[in-house]
User: Fold Chromosome partitioning protein ParA from Adhaeribacter arboris.
Amino acid sequence: MKTQTTTIATVNNIPILIIENGEKLIPIRPICDALGIDSKSQREKIESDEFLNSVAVLSPSTGADNKIYEMTCIPYKYVFGWLFTINPKNVKPEAQEAVSRYRTQCYEVLFRHFSDQSDFLEQKQKALELQLEKEQEVRSDFRNTQKTLKEATTRLNVIKDTTFEYWLANHRQF
Assistant:
């Protein structure tokens, strides 16, 4: 089966996103070069990682010198996790702040992902308790209103049934 490779995105004429047989792949070397870290040690790190090793592939990619090399690539959907493992202290000074900021964002996204369910449940419980109080208040008001209506209806019926003679006997009062 012939491999179909297409370069989708480049930075400084270096491919950073390729599609091979329909799968988006990211060569790690250009990222390592941009961050100022050793691509060989990152490749070894990926190879020693039980999960990343199972998804990493070698794919032909054009290097900075415009020559084709077999480069270690990882699927696009896993590149963010790999980048998260890079220690800001190990990158070139001008990239340290960006890597630190990226890691902070990752921590925040992970926190939101895993805490959103409990936040939802807490907010739902509070909303349920508040609405239950309101519903009980409305039911109480409704019962009082029903009682008031019944009393008013009874008084109305008394007035309707009052005869002229009763009114006279009651000192001309209702």
Q: What stands out?
A: Residues 93-161 form the longest helix (69 residues). The helical segments are 28-35, 39-48, 50-55, 76-84, 93-161, 164-169.
